[in-house]
């Protein structure tokens, strides 16, 4: 084990890699040798099969000649006496001769002819000698050139149980076999041929067909075809599925080594010519089958290799974890500790020395101790320290040092020396005390200066403000009023600045105390925004106030302090935004098992500089940004930060150049009441129609209407609601047809334009409620009953169905797509009826979707929704609902087209 501990970290890995390399090389050599042996076995099997093919072809070439000669001599009755036959008629042109020993049967195709029956029986007797002792499938097809009859001699067993049905696989394929043989008989230049290797569809029998033609002057060519099986002489190494007979065009001389090996894609092909005929035998072996065969034959070798490799891997891991890794970890930790120790010792402000008196050499030391070594005697100091409990004071180079010593128990005769310069320590302590005293004096002086300056300036500024107000009363001219207003803004700015300085001094001196009371948060924020709105309107900015808290939510905190924070940040956002919008979000969120109030102020201005953001902790560090209307102060962020901390909140400022700034105030929220506070639903029973294009304005209005209990609908999405009390829109309309509120942010409250039109700020709930209430009271004639009566009279006392139908007729008559509607929609409705009858749900869904697109294009909302419901029923295969909806659609289309044609 000591040897393993002394190994280098990478030695074991290198040895293991070398071992694996030797094993891979050995495995490769074995695989190469085994594959070479496997190739030789395949070559021998191919060679033996080729020889058997050539011998079989030679045998049946001889038998074909004998049978042809027999067919020419059958007319000689002296040599071949007439046999007594009893042919069985299967069909009008098919006859069966049962074999003598019931092993070979004859079938004759053609007109009944005694000479043909005699020839078929003679063929059967001859082939029974050849095939009778075997148990293989073999067949002979003889196309007689004299009478063009086809004789089938076969040992196929499937014929016998099917005699009663007069049909079999062989009898049904006779006509195709006759056509094939006739086509072969026309090829006079080819006397004999081999067909590709085939597989019988009913059995696992592979065979090929040997054909030979005999030409006799004055008659048609006679064809002899043998279906010869190959299963009986194939070796076990070869599968008949991969064997191919390919024509080569020339005969070759026998050479057992003349086996060509090639590749085709992922297959290995063995090919060898067949002796005596212009064909070659090809064996196409897929690589997948090769790998499977080799793996199966070497399965135990592979399993043993896998087990051996697994054992070696786990052994390698065990040795590394048990011996190598601890050594590496220990070495690394020792090196790190040594480097840290040296770094710490070299940066100590005192002298440190570890000295071995037995060998008289330094073990550890730093630069401070090195400077003192030439001037001291360590043995004497050590002896003196032992007498005084390890601590002495002495003068070294006219400086007083305190020296501590201690002995090391692990190393004999070794001591630790610590040198502390008492003169430098006393000097440093004295400087620190003076610096602390000076800092405290400066802080107190700054606070007193700012406090006194605030007190001295506040009175004159107030006097100036009072005089400005008096001048405004005495000088009514517009020019004087404008100058005095500007002067009043500047004096108010100075007054506010002085108040902020005073408040910062109180916050820093812990003189300011928080005054908690209950107030409604949304009302507080809304009042602040109403105060800041004139400044936004003057700069042309748009305000969006998203109040996402529930109505009547109370907050226990210092309301005036929170108001000052919010108003200061909004004024800062206004001054840094030249154009665009300012968004204020009010949310109640649950974060880490506690609820918080989040007030987000987001502007689209030029953003804040790093100096501006740094003012949150260091006031007046950078010049604050401003505009021509308002000058910011470098203490605003610092003051807001202090106030947020006092009211247990948190202020976060994020900004990006040319994009804008994001101020977020997070305040803790505590539930005041155990039950939800009641809230007056002031707009209950009022139905409003929304025609708002700006999505942010629409969101704010929907929040306000939900908050105060009104119902509403969007005219761009819902067309089936003709009854409403009021319209809310954000685009101007000089001649409104019904009571209308024009939503904008350029006014603070609401402003009456006419009897039917009022301008109103959409951000604030109270002006919006007052505008809606005032407009409805002024337009009582537009109540719900009157609206119903007017619609009734306008549409000739029609019901709601007729109102919608008349509306759609007007849209259709005034649309450019009227002709398209007339030419396509009725046809599609007829298709719906037909496809629903045939239950063709796929085509039905496509037609319904196409109709839905047409109705959506014409803004026929009710018909479009009907198509959507129809698609849902088609998806669920609800046949009754589908037919009902198609009938309703058909009724609508007929009435629309009837009016359109009129």
UniProtKB/TrEMBL annotation:
Record's GO cellular component terms: plasma membrane
GO function term, MF aspect, one: phosphorelay sensor kinase activity
EC class name: transferase
CDD domains noted in UniProt: HPT
InterPro entries found in the cross-reference section: HATPase_C_sf, HATPase_dom, His_kinase_dom, HPT_dom_sf, Ptransferase_RcsD, RcsD_ABL, RcsD_ABL_sf, Sig_transdc_His_kin_Hpt_dom
Residues where Phosphohistidine is found: 849
Residue spans crossing the bilayer: 15-35, 299-319
Domain Histidine kinase: residue ranges: 452-671
Residues of the HPt domain: 810-902
Entry EC no(s): 2.7.2.-
SMART domains for the chain: HATPase_c
Keyword tags: Membrane, Phosphoprotein, Transferase, Transmembrane, Transmembrane helix, Two-component regulatory system
Name this polypeptide is given: Phosphotransferase RcsD
Name of encoding gene: rcsD
